[in-house]
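Tutorial, part two.
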Amino acid sequence: MTKQELKTALEESFKIITNDVENIEEAQFFAPIGEKWSVAENILHLTQSAKGLNQGMALPKAFLEQQFGKIDRPILSYEGVVDRYLAVLGTGVTARGGFVPQMPENPSKDILLSSFLKHHQTLADFLNDWSEAELDEYCIKHPALKMLTIKEFYYFMHYHILHHRKAILKKK
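Running the prediction step on this input gives:
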């Protein structure tokens, strides 16, 4: 996927999930999905994930190179990233730490969706600062998948939205 294709795919994915949840009533938005997270918790988790990567993307490239080095393996395709993620999920790994959704006091559906869109658009916009080559050269550490190139991390972020969308659609 080219940088522009990746940006377009990411933007489409977060707009699709937003459209999916806009018509869910507030009470249903916050209700658990069986024993799983509520729609609100899924949205908050995705927002926290975007915020985390945004912090990394805001760092100077030289710092990322110094901190994480360069990738020393073949670059993964989109499907390769998805397969790796699903394999890790298959081991029982779940969100932890700052990625476990903690609802703010007096949460609002509108505020959660607005924050979700803002942080995901920021993430998409960071792609403008990177060349095609740099997306495959620089890497950053994912909490479960370990070292990923910037492009691979964006592949993950795109799929991650679609993965949580499946859970949300079960609620609808």
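The radius of gyration is 16 Å. In part three we will examine how such features are distributed along the chain.
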